[in-house]
Amino acid sequence: MHLNPSASPTFVQVHLEDTGAVQAELVAGLIGTGARIAPKFLYDALGSRLFDAITELPEYYPTRTEASIFAQHGQAMASRVAPGSVLIDLGAGSCAKAAGLFPVLNPGGYVAVDISVDYLREALGTLQDRHPDLPMLGLGQDFSKTFALPDAARTWLSGRKLARAPRTVFYPGSSIGNFSPEEALDLLRQARVVCQSGGAGGGVLIGVDLVKPAGLLEPAYDDSLGVTAAFNRNLLLNVNRWLGADFQPAEWAHVAFFDAELSRIEMHLQARAALTVRWTGGERRFAEGERIHTENAWKWRAEDFSALLQEAGFGPASHWTDASSWFGVFWAPAAS
Ligand code: AVJ
């Protein structure tokens, strides 16, 4: 019997952290003075679906603005991205953005990386049915601290004669905004190493939300339907599962604001009344109004982001924006 090796996507789970390490990270964030929970906990299966709903909200401009930039400048981007390259999609989610670019970018392989494993598995399966001849690999991986291709991915690439294909690291949606400038620099340096391990012509294609007045930014993170509030509160249900905790989402208010000085949106959950949260092996009292910091979304000036790419070792960056310069898509070659 002959099985077409690309008929269904390969899947590799790189969960380096065991349950104990995740729990320790959560508890460490909860017991300090400024309580915090990392934004990656927003993305369980329901969280990923709520985020998809956010992208359709009238107030949430980034997704559709970025899509309009891809639609208008896709050909110009394609002239930079080597055809036949391996598209490495960070935080692939529904894989919809990358899939929309397959016809323009003509990749030779597709590697989808996401922490939300079950969601990715489903999305990638559907996508493979639509593109039966494109080799696809799913990586269940948390790249928020370090990013490198695992051995299994390199073996997979070799097995499909893609080891020497150029590599394009695709990081759309302004997810890089979750990283502080220092962390973003670190991630970009690691992305460059990944690109340079492939054939010549690789680089990064990355979507970045640009600085704009608070009156435009804040509604995008505090919409009138309350979807973002639900997305933020859902993190507590996810934490309840990880820790055996008893967070009651209804006791927490969604708070989002732009800090112009730090150039970032901050999201918090604020206790509506004094309360105590208990989990297996611990508890924490919160005063009324006390907050848990759940997300930062940094906003960049285009020139600062180009400079960051250069500092990370990339060659001269190009970027494309919409008519109002709300959002930028940057290309930078790995070779300096
Ligand atoms: C997925 C990180 C790009 O910051 O805009 C949306 C996440 N948080 N609404 C963003 C998010 C609240 C989103 N990123």
TrEMBL record:
SUPFAM superfamilies: S-adenosyl-L-methionine-dependent methyltransferases. Residues 23-332 form the Histidine-specific methyltransferase SAM-dependent domain. The keyword Flavoprotein does not apply. Keywords: Methyltransferase, Transferase. One of its GO terms (molecular function) is methyltransferase activity. InterPro entries: EgtD, EgtD_Methyltrsf_superfamily, MeTrfase_dom, MeTrfase_EgtD-like, SAM-dependent_MTases_sf. The keyword Transferase applies. Coiled coil: none annotated. One of its GO terms (biological process) is methylation. It comes from the Bacteria. PANTHER family: ERGOTHIONEINE BIOSYNTHESIS PROTEIN 1 (PTHR43397). This is Dimethylhistidine N-methyltransferase.
